[in-house]
């Protein structure tokens, strides 16, 4: 895809390990339910996927529950891009660039969210991991010390 920052267009080629962070629509399909038409069409066009089988018997249902997520970039939509640009051969002394590699810190992000929103998401997930780690340390210390407290 091409991205235009107002000064010109640049080709963006998402690397295999690149981060695509988009606002997403979500569909949940319970066991035995028929998925919406969008999901049915998607699954029919993806050879590696199939629709889950399920049986409803009164209040009981068997089969898989699935969750489908879809994120899209619309033409003209504002995006945030973090990656490394490299020069490519354009011929006739022209220069063209492509952004297809991560930064020196191994970051590559293409998102329809703002930089501020992405930073806030990173902070909040960091606090969750920090709290979970502190809880695990507290549980480990309590289990280590508890035999000595019962003496």
Automatic annotation (TrEMBL):
It is a multi-pass membrane protein. Keywords: Membrane, Metal-binding, Transferase, Transmembrane, Transmembrane helix, Ubl conjugation pathway, Zinc, Zinc-finger. It comes from the Archaea. It catalyses: S-ubiquitinyl-[E2 ubiquitin-conjugating enzyme]-L-cysteine + [acceptor protein]-L-lysine = [E2 ubiquitin-conjugating enzyme]-L-cysteine + N(6)-ubiquitinyl-[acceptor protein]-L-lysine. One of its GO terms (cellular component) is membrane. Residues 67-135 form the E3 Ubiquitin ligase MUL1-like domain. The chain crosses the membrane at residues 127-149. It is found in: Membrane. The keyword Nuclease does not apply. Its EC number is 2.3.2.27. This is RING-type E3 ubiquitin transferase. It comes from Natrinema hispanicum.
